[in-house]
Recover the amino acids of this structure.
């Protein structure tokens, strides 16, 4: 779906955001793109969609060079941005204007998702909706577009707690094995149950880019009630639940991956954990 080789990009000279970045995003996965603020998550998504042009290296999105913005690529790509700019139209009017750009847009699916989000009237004017309601309309439209590539930048920002649960159910219910979904987020706990492939950005490059299953084979996540944690822990963290600890997992013991703990462990003990995944 997406192939990036030796990518470099910066908004100013001598200020690279990416340097020799290489990675792939494949169909049939919900990819979580994670990283600290300012590491370039949104920039990478814009490069993938052709909204920004790389300074070096090569990129292919759905078999196309994204900066060429080929119509056949654009009709198979939907980008849901964090910041929404919606026209002064009703929901019905929005569908009439924008749905024709996506050949597999499914109106019945769109209405079903809106109904689950408790937005039942297509005559509602977009400008009268709250930020969270606007986000729901855009999420519904993005999924119902049925593009082969769906990019979501911080999709749960602006959603209340019940809506975040609805979002997880909706994305799971409308999973398409032919689609590549990329979700950029710092709200890791909102999406923990959805993400099945994790890419973490830091300092111009990718620290880790593996399936959740592979991460679970390489690292062991354990919880302790007291401070009696083995000294070979790669990382420990206190919480109300007790003490979380991350270990190397050479025996491949099953454990429950915690993406937030993984993220914190990586930045606390980056080189050792990177070496585990190089082995």
């Amino acid at each position: 779906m997406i192939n990036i080789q030796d990518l470099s990009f910066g908004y100013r000279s001598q200020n690279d955001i990416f340097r020799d970045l290489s990675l792939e995003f494949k169909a049939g996965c919900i990819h979580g793109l994670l990283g600290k603020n300012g590491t370039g998550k949104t920039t990478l998504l814009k490069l993938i969609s052709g909204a920004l042009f790389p300074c070096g290296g090569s990129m292919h999105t759905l078999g196309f060079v994204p900066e060429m913005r080929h119509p056949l690529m654009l009709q198979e790509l939907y980008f849901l941005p964090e910041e929404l700019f919606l026209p002064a139209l009703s929901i019905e009017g929005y569908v009439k204007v924008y749905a024709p750009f996506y050949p597999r847009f499914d109106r019945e699916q769109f209405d079903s998702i809106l109904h689950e989000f408790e937005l039942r009237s297509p005559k509602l004017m977009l400008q009268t909706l709250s930020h969270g309601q606007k986000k729901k309309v855009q999420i519904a439209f993005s999924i119902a577009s049925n593009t082969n590539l769906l990019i979501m930048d911080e999709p749960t920002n602006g959603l209340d707690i019940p809506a975040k649960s609805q979002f997880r159910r909706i994305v799971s219910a409308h999973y398409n094995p032919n689609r590549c979904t990329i979700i950029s987020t710092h709200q890791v706990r909102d999406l923990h149950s959805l993400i099945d492939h994790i890419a973490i950005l830091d300092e111009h490059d990718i620290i880790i880019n593996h399936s959740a299953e592979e991460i679970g084979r390489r690292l062991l996540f354990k919880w302790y009630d007291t401070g009696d944690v083995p000294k070979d822990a790669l990382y420990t963290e206190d919480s109300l639940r007790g003490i979380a600890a991350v270990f190397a997992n050479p025996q491949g013991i099953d454990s429950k991956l915690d993406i937030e703990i993984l993220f914190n462990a990586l930045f606390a003990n980056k080189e050792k954990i990177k070496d585990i995944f190089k082995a």
Summary: The mean pLDDT is 92. Residues 211-278 form one domain. Residues 218 and 276 are 7 Å apart (CA to CA). The chain has two domains: 2-203, 211-278.
